[in-house]
Design goal:
Rossmann fold; 35% helix; 26% strand
Length: 335
C-alpha cells in the first residue's frame, strides 16, 4: 500500500520503443473514455516568467476511470531557448496517485511519456482521418524530438510513404531528421528549405514546431483533402482554420492559450468551424470530406499522460525496471 517507485527516462524509452503499437490503442481507448465522461481533466495551469516570455512550466492534473481508476499530475517545462544550447526543449515528471487512498505510488520521467502520447495521438488521427496507413508524400515541419517520435510511431504502425520531406529553420536539425528517417526508419527522405514547397503535394502534413504565433498564413497553403496534424497548435492562421474541417481532441481545452483554433474563435466570434472531436469521428458521429483540408489540433490531455504512464509503470514493474524507494512515506499510521 505504501510502495513508491521511480522510473527513469531510459527505462521509459525502452518500454515505449517496444510497445508503440499498444500505446496507440491505449490512446484511442482513453479518448473514447474521455468522450464518454469517464475522466476528470481540469484546465492545465501555466507558470510563466516575465523575463522569459517564451518559457513556461505546465501542470496537467487528471483522473482516468475506465477500469484504470488512476489520478495524477504531469509537470512539464517548455524552454525553447534550450534548443540553442543543444538540449531538448521539454523536460517533465509524472506523479501517479492511488485512487482509493490518494497516496502517490510512482514518479516517472515523463518527457518520453509526453512525446509518446503526443506521437500516438497524431498517428491515430492520421489513420482515422485518412482511412488508411498509406500516403504518397508526408511533409514534416519541425525537426525536433516530437517529430522524430511521430515518425517512429508511423513506422511501428506499418505506414507506407512514397517520400518524406522535412522542413526546419535549422539546416542541421532538418538534415539530422531526414537522415534518421532514411537510414533508421527506411523511408525515402529529403529536406526542403522553402515551406511552401515542402507543403505542396503532401497528403499528410505534420506541424511540430516551437512557434508561438501563426506563420502559415497563405490561404492556399493547404490543399483540399490534405490531412494536417497541427501538433504544435499555433502554426496556422485563423483564416486557414476557418476554411478547413477541424477535428480537436477536446473542444474546451483547445479554445485556450491562443492556439490556432482559439485565434479563430476570437476572430469570428463563435465556433462554427469546429467539426468535432477525434473520439466523435472514431464513433462515426462526425465526418469530413475532400473539399477542404482536414486539420487535427490536439491540445494534449492529462488523461493521456496517465494512461501511457500507467502502461509504462506496469511494464517497468514487471521487468524489474522500477526502482523501489523504501520508507518513502515517513508516517503510515495516524498514531
Amino acid at each position: 500500500m505504501y510502495e513508491f517507485s521511480v522510473i527513469g527516462g531510459k527505462t521509459a524509452r525502452e518500454i515505449i520503443s517496444a510497445s508503440r503499437q499498444d500505446i496507440v490503442d491505449v490512446v484511442r481507448d482513453t479518448y473514447l473514455a474521455h468522450e464518454a465522461g469517464d475522466s476528470v481533466n481540469p484546465d492545465s495551469y501555466f507558470l510563466r516568467f516575465p523575463e522569459k516570455p517564451d518559457a513556461r512550466i505546465i501542470a496537467l492534473p487528471a483522473h482516468l476511470g475506465a477500469g484504470a481508476d488512476i489520478s495524477g499530475i504531469k509537470w512539464i517545462s517548455s524552454f525553447p531557448a534550450n534548443i540553442e544550447r543543444g538540449i531538448p526543449r521539454a523536460s517533465a515528471a509524472l506523479l501517479l496517485n492511488d485512487h482509493e487512498t490518494g497516496y502517490p505510488f510512482a514518479c516517472l520521467e515523463a518527457s518520453q511519456i509526453s512525446a509518446a502520447r503526443t506521437a500516438a495521438s497524431a498517428v491515430l488521427a492520421a489513420e482515422q482521418l485518412t482511412g488508411g496507413r498509406t500516403a504518397g508524400k508526408l511533409a514534416v515541419v519541425g525537426a525536433g524530438i516530437i517529430a522524430r517520435n511521430i515518425l517512429e510511431f508511423f513506422t511501428s504502425r506499418d505506414w507506407q510513404f512514397g517520400s518524406v520531406t522535412v522542413h526546419d529553420k535549422s539546416e542541421e536539425y532538418g538534415s539530422a531528421l531526414a537522415a534518421h528517417t532514411a537510414n533508421v526508419l527506411g523511408y525515402p527522405a529529403d529536406t526542403e528549405h522553402d515551406l511552401a514547397a515542402a507543403l505542396a503535394g503532401a497528403d499528410v502534413v505534420v506541424l511540430a514546431t516551437t512557434a508561438a504565433e501563426p506563420y502559415i498564413l497563405d490561404p492556399e497553403a493547404f490543399a483540399p483533402g490534405q490531412t494536417v496534424l497541427n501538433i504544435s497548435l499555433r502554426d496556422i492562421g485563423p483564416e486557414l482554420i476557418e476554411g478547413a474541417y477541424n477535428i480537436l481532441d477536446d473542444v474546451e481545452h483547445c479554445m485556450k492559450a491562443n492556439t490556432s483554433p482559439h485565434l479563430a474563435e476570437q476572430k469570428y466570434g463563435d465556433r462554427h468551424f469546429v467539426t468535432g472531436t477525434l473520439a466523435q469521428f472514431i464513433k462515426g458521429e462526425v465526418t469530413t470530406g475532400g473539399d477542404k483540408p482536414v486539420i487535427f489540433s490536439p491540445f494534449g490531455l492529462g488523461v493521456l499522460d496517465l494512461a501511457v504512464g500507467l502502461h509504462v509503470f506496469r511494464a517497468a514493474r514487471a521487468s524489474g525496471g522500477a526502482v523501489e524507494i523504501a520508507d518513502f512515506f515517513g508516517e503510515t499510521t495516524r498514531w
